[in-house]
């Protein structure tokens, strides 16, 4: 048998269950959500985004969504990563500082301006920036923007990442990582809710 | 690069999209990149030539996307999968994604005016019991922390969706929390 399906594992979907059968009808989606996970966390080329950076960002992003089996999984993944245990305290502290409710943010000036919603503009603390380094600190600030106020994103945010040492390819992989996790945490939450409602 | 003319309202019109960082030049694409693009024609798109900087992730993401939305052998009608995508995009604020998937929702449902009301009035527009349930579930899933709960399941069931169709709503809405974040943060739409 291949590597266990991460969404099934995190959602508690047992082989032979009703949801297992439903998921089997979207086999290509199921297999490629798994391949997405593997290509982000077991990449063939980690030269633009290190494995430690991936694990730290994942623990932060899923932690921002609140406590869940997904957040626990990625926190443990960070703890088990080379160099990860030393970052756990800072990541936990930054999750606590960054938690809020989204989505919020601003639209281009015009009729949608009436829907602009103010909210936390998160910045990493000075202490955590020292512990995490400028590159990871910039990543956490951008990840927070992606999680809670994606419509605020601007060209200047790309420049901030480039200035902190991220390459164009690194920005693509890192953006995919955060965006994928936004998908994964929701699929798991949705499937768990459905399973509980069907029990 | 030509001047960007960003739209200031949600629309079903066709929009362009301009990257803020450098896509790969078409001339530099290798077979590894074409595998990532899945459809070779996507080499013409600035968005896909940017995402193909990580070909393995792009390939897996594209195949996930296609099965969630295009595999209509069973489950939720395509129109309502597109509605989930459009509602998620409307709520997250992705004008580009909303334009594409509102158009698809209109095409497959033949309810263009209702789709336009979703864009104009937002996710609280009254679109009838079944669409309201799909939109509300999509919005609850888009919130952070996630607000999707048993009430959403009950509402979808009352509106006539079975569990396989509800999984299609969950997959479609969740996927757009992926897509919206890429489209919104790596570049911008242009009229």
TrEMBL record, chain A:
InterPro entries: AhpD-like, CHP04029_CMD-like
SUPFAM superfamilies registered for this protein in UniProt: AhpD-like
Domain of life per record: Bacteria
Protein name as annotated: Avi_7170 family CMD domain-containing protein
Protein's organism: Bradyrhizobium nitroreducens
Automatic annotation (TrEMBL), chain B:
Signal peptide start-end: none
GO MF term list: peroxiredoxin activity
Domain Carboxymuconolactone decarboxylase-like residues, every copy: 55-137
Record carries keyword Oxidoreductase: yes
Keyword line: Oxidoreductase, Peroxidase
Listed InterPro entries: AhpD-like (IPR029032), AhpD_Avi7169 (IPR023923), AhpD_core (IPR004675), CMD-like (IPR003779), Uncharacterised_peroxidase-rel (IPR010195)
Protein name: Alkylhydroperoxidase
Organism of provenance: Bradyrhizobium nitroreducens
